[in-house]
Amino acid sequence: MIAYLDCFSGISGDMLLGALVDAGLSLDDLRSDLARLPVSGYEVRAERVTKGSIAGTQVTVEVTEQQSHRGLDDILRIIGESGLPAQVTQSAERVFTRLAEAEAAVHNQPVEEIHFHEVGAVDAIVDVVGACAGLHRLGVEEVYASPLPLGGGWVKAAHGMLPVPAPATAELVKGIPTYGGPVEAELVTPTGAAIITTLCRQFGPMPPMIVSQIGWGAGVRNLAHPNLLRLFLGEPEKRVRDQRLSLIQTNLDDMNPELFEHLLDRLLEAGALDVFYTPIVMKKSRPATLVSVLADPGKVDALSAILFRETTALGLRVHEVSRRCLDRRWTEVDTPYGRVRVKLGLLGSETVTLAPEYEDCRRLARERGVPLKAVYEAAQAAARRCAGCRDMGDAQVPVGQARPQTSAAQAPGRLPARSGPRLPDRFGAEGLRRGLCAALPGVEGSAFPRRVRRPRRQIRGPQPGCGRRCGAGRGGGDGAHDRGPGHLFLHACQGRRRMAYPLPERGRVSLVPLSVGAAARVSNRGRNPGRAAGRS
């Protein structure tokens, strides 16, 4: 499930709690989660109110005891001792850590010396932890939000009168879409800014989604407009996302080529989404380079300054472009060479592509002294197994994993008789590797060695547990047989020499080639040995 926060009147911690309760979060569940915090001296109440002509839920955290000022370590200890789910505690800790970093930047102090005032009180702790727990209770996996209206004027705080947005709020909303007004009031509080900038994945228009619930969270003030936060809950529509980005371009025909690498690094470090160079020909047939920088609109000024300082450009072109891209998620997988990060491309909830992190694969290849391609392919195979057949499609189900029962002609793991992937005419070790990779779904080529070792014994006649004659001893025929779970026998055509290949998490694959140029066929029947009697 995803959530979209429509912040037309800003956001605060209690407004978000109200929207969650209004959208279906049980107040008893919220109180139960908050009761696990080792703090006391507060009460949580909820009531239906009307702001303007719209009804919503107002959640109030009433402090009943005097609270002391707390530092970041104190708050992190409170959250860590709560025993709440790890996802809740980690999110709450990230919110307060981000808030502490903003306060440290404003006051020019180390994070360890920051002592919170308003945001260190118990009501702020309740707002942050309650929001994270509520999103977890409702099953929200991703949060999106609209641009934030900051309001205007002045606000009274522990440090005296402060301009709106408050300094900590202004620090927190750097780099995200905001606008002033529409009223002279504080619309985005530091707590609200910390929560939304930490948990929100993207700011902008509402993403394509099928809405199932809507919640309205009421603020305390009565303003000229309805002072509410609107929350949409639903499932993402299964399609790619549209993004509005800026494309910065310039043509360079007089720049030292040695400087381009440094320029690319500087631009990426400053937040560019992509940087690429295109060779072009300019006037008077001069060879030149087209520098293209793709970035969020809010980073155009900073990236333009880098381009002017680091290149010979006298002018830049800036275009608004639309980009369609898959949702992305990072995961880590274990390979025989070590752990590798893998980026998954999601179409809705379906994983349609994956890409191992190049730097991780290169590092492991150097450390282990193996080809980079072997590490890359092992990471791909591990990621497909982790993603599961529901995400990656049936074609990627690992060998040995249960499949839906289908007819022999339709089963993905069984190729019909006299069909299957053709092996190369030069049927050496490389040919066997290619044939196996094509025949075994979900197994990468790096799983099989390039060198064929000499067998310990030869196979003649039908195999134990097969239940039928395979023709191996007659110099003809082909087929695949099992010797129980963990053993898979492939009969191809080229003599009677036995060749064994290791199969990850599945035992060994024994090959009995019979004649050059014939097809190899695989039938994975390890779960039911002997059942294939009479079937080719």
Structure, explained:
By secondary structure, this protein is an alpha+beta fold. The protein is 27% helix and 28% strand. The protein has twelve helices and 24 strands. Strand 23 and strand 24 (507-511) form a beta hairpin. It is globular.
Descriptive tags:
536 residues, alpha+beta, five-stranded mixed beta sheet, 12 helices, globular, disordered C terminus
Architecture blueprint of SSEs:
Layout: E1 2-6, H1 13-22, H2 27-34, E2 42-51, E3 54-63, E4 70-71, H3 72-80, H4 86-107, E5 115-116, H5 122-137, E6 142-145, E7 148-149, E8 154-157, E9 160-163, H6 167-172, E10 178-179, H7 190-199, E11 200-203, E12 209-218, E13 228-236, E14 241-252, H8 260-269, E15 274-281, E16 287-295, H9 300-310, E17 317-325, E18 327-335, E19 338-347, E20 350-356, H10 358-368, H11 372-392, H12 429-439, E21 479-481, E22 487-491, E23 499-503, E24 507-511
Parallel strand pairs: 1-6, 6-11, 7-10, 22-24
Antiparallel strand pairs: 1-13, 2-3, 4-5, 8-9, 12-13, 14-16, 14-17, 15-16, 18-19, 19-20, 21-22, 23-24
> Mean pLDDT, rounded to whole units?
76
How many H/I helical runs?
12
Specify the biggest β-sheet. 5 strands, mixed
Distance between the termini: 47 Å
Q: Within the largest sheet, what's the order of strands?
A: 11-6-1-13-12
Can you count the beta strands? Answer: 24
